[in-house]
């Protein structure tokens, strides 16, 4: 079990994962092919390609989340894991250009993309070049990089429900978000080890068999944690399961 984060209620607002207003990354237009509607329940661990992004280095919680997740995926047998961070350099620095390039080349029999950062209703924040990465850019890049392959996308940020919309919902995609479009998420303060959503997500990986198990368990965990800490305006994690991946298993499960 990961260490529970003890905070007083007054600190919850300062720990909410909201950036200052910054420039939005322009979307790119990419021709999209039809996604396969054939149900898929399992992909071998070696067939999964993962991309993990910690978008802001002003809190250790984001880097802690992707570092731990990288180790957990590795223990499941996933070998192709790319990590982008605000504390990295060169091609792995979490800039909009590097993240876009990475998404466009994820590949694999199945794609797993996890982003943890601050966010707003326009998208998630990348501090390295002070850009907002929005749903249109993510959708276009995933279409190019993952195509019709089973794709799991997790966005752990305030207002991240904005990434579930009519364009991003595809039969081959699972999309999980830490908050509804009009809600903040919590646990991104300087003293937090993990964001609340990341902490709960990581906890579910031990016993879950399917991504639906992970999603439901994470949502329940976040709700319990927020009640215990006295959060009045809860984050309301969101989820979408495409028809072709409704029962998709975790790697090796």
Automatic annotation (TrEMBL):
PROSITE patterns: PROKAR_LIPOPROTEIN (PS51257). GO terms for molecular function: peptidase activity. GO terms for biological process: proteolysis. InterPro entries: Peptidase_C13. Keywords: Signal. Residues 1-21 form the signal peptide. This is Peptidase C13 family protein.
């Amino acid at each position: 079990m990961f260490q529970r984060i003890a905070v007083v209620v007054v600190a919850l607002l300062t720990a909410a994962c909201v950036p200052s207003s910054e420039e939005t990354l322009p979307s790119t237009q990419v021709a999209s092919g039809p996604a396969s509607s054939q149900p898929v329940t399992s992909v071998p661990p070696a067939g999964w390609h993962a991309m993990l992004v910690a978008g802001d280095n002003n809190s250790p919680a984001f880097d802690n989340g992707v570092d731990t997740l990288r180790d957990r995926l590795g223990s499941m047998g996933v070998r192709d894991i790319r990590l982008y961070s605000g504390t990295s350099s060169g091609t792995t620095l979490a800039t909009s250009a590097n993240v876009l390039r990475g998404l466009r080349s994820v590949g694999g029999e199945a794609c797993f993309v996890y982003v943890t950062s601050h966010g707003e209703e326009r998208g998630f924040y990348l501090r390295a070049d002070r850009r907002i990465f929005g749903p249109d850019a993510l959708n276009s890049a995933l279409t190019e990089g993952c195509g019709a392959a089973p794709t799991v996308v997790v966005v752990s940020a305030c207002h991240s429900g904005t990434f579930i919309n009519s364009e991003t919902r595809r039969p081959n995609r699972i999309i999980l978000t830490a908050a509804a479009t009009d809600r903040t998420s919590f646990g991104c303060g300087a003293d937090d080890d993990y964001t609340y959503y990341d902490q709960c997500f990581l906890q579910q990986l031990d016993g879950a068999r399917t991504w639906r198990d992970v999603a439901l368990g994470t949502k329940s965990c976040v709700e319990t944690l927020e009640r215990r800490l006295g959060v009045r305006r809860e984050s309301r994690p969101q989820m979408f399961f495409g028809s072709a991946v409704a029962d998709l298993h975790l790697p090796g499960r």
